[in-house]
Amino acid sequence: MAPRTARYAAPSRPQSCTTRSDPTSASTLGLVSLVYGFNEAAKPDVGWGAPSTIAFLVAAGVLLVGFVLWEQRTSNPLLPLRIALDRNRGGSYLVFLLVGAGLFAMFLFLTFYLQVVLQYSPLRASAALLPFSAGIIVGAGLMSQLMPKLGPKPLMVTGLAMATIGMLWLTQIDVGTSYATHVLPSQVVMSLGMAAVFVPASSTALVGIDPHDAGVGSALLNTTQQIGGSLGTALLNTLYAGAVTSYLAAHTGLAPKVAQVDALIHGYRVAFFWGAVFIAVALLVAIVLINAKKDDIPANPQTAAAAA
């Protein structure tokens, strides 16, 4: 009897190697076009009605809509839409997007105010912003203890309300505003409010998610905050530039130096106001969409908080 020859099956290729890749360039180019369109609108000689601005904004809309449509149809999506369409997870991503837009603007224009108006050195201005980071650190530890007792929604709503108040507080700045009695307290209020947002939102962003989707969900959480910061900075810088230009045009009778400083302060106020609007919209999103209970959140909220 002839010996049997061993037969070996050829190794199969991973599924990810046999499927078509997602058009990630569409989402990337769409976001780049959106940010660049906002930047074009901020230029005095361009504006919102310029063909270049309109072209970039239209291209952004087409590319981003195309990316979403592709993700709905492909069998191997880069971003499974089921992750973002859950009300708690989607609400958390929207909150991070809007908060990122508001906070990045606060850091940018508050730094300008400290250095240009209050004449702080770059080192002193950086030190003047440290209380915000300290408030986040202290507040995060406190909120991690409160969340298992109160649940995520009460903390998020309270934190977003505090952050909105703190941002509106900054709209009252002037040439003679005191750092100790005005800028510092507003930072403390905002930082404690943000701590009350980051900790629970980092948990609700992963509520009910499948284990194999956890990586994408966590990445989307961080991505939305960074996208919010980019878009918010571009849009608010556009509004700031428009406010400064309009102020200078309406106050031609003032001394040039006085008019310039007053125009800058007016621009900062406008930027802080719209930053507060972004955070206020995030507050409405949290009220309407977030309905997770304290039993739904992970057992170790400190782990989720670290993701923020």
Would you give an account of this structure?
The chain is an all-alpha fold and 308 residues long. 75% of the residues lie in helices and 0% in strands. The protein has 12 helices and no strands. Helix 2 (24-42) runs antiparallel to helix 3 (51-73). The model is unreliable at 1-19 and 301-308 (pLDDT under 50).
Q: Determine Rg (CA atoms, Å).
A: 24 Å
Portion in strands: under 5%
Named CATH topology of the largest domain: Growth Hormone, Chain: A
Helix count, DSSP H or I runs of 4 or more residues: 12
Total domain modules: 2
- Which blocks of ≥5 consecutive residues have pLDDT under 50? 1-19, 301-308
CATH architecture descriptor name of the largest domain: Up-down Bundle
Secondary structure tally: strands:
0
The span between the termini is 69 Å
How would you summarize this macromolecular structure in one to three sentences?
The protein is mostly helical.
Keywords summarizing the entry:
disordered N terminus, 12 helices, disordered C terminus, 308 residues, 2 domains, mainly alpha, Growth Hormone, Chain: A
Secondary-structure blueprint:
Layout: H1 15-18, H2 24-42, H3 51-73, H4 81-85, H5 87-117, H6 122-128, H7 130-150, H8 152-170, H9 179-204, H10 214-250, H11 256-289, H12 301-306
Helix pairs in contact: 2-3, 2-10, 5-9, 5-10, 5-11, 7-8, 7-9, 8-9, 8-11, 10-11
